[in-house]
């Protein structure tokens, strides 16, 4: 008998797969906090930028820069 006949069928990269480890290993990724305040801050900053542009606080040529900042 050769060594290839003794090798288990489910080998990958020279390592043997242990089916018992699959049930013991668990990875949970949960968020620490809600992402909603970040969205509120984003809308507030975009509103201030547009208001400043409309009130001529920013120069007239800054329209494209304001649009890109909002995107």
* Count of extended strands: 2
How does the overall form come out from the CA principal axes? elongated
| Secondary structure: helix percent | 40-55%
Strand order of the largest sheet: 1-2
Structure explained in plain terms:
The chain has helices at 3-6, 19-24, 36-54, 63-70; strands at 11-12, 15-16. The protein has a domain at 34-71. It is mainly alpha-helical. The chain has a two-stranded antiparallel ribbon with strand order 1-2. A hairpin with a 2-residue loop joins strand 1 and strand 2. The radius of gyration is 29 Å and the shape is elongated.
What is this entry, summarized?
The protein contains four helices and two strands, in the order αββααα.
Which labels suit this protein?
2 strands; about 70 residues
Task: Give the SSE map.
Elements: H1 3-6, E1 11-12, E2 15-16, H2 19-24, H3 36-54, H4 63-70
Antiparallel strand pairs: 1-2
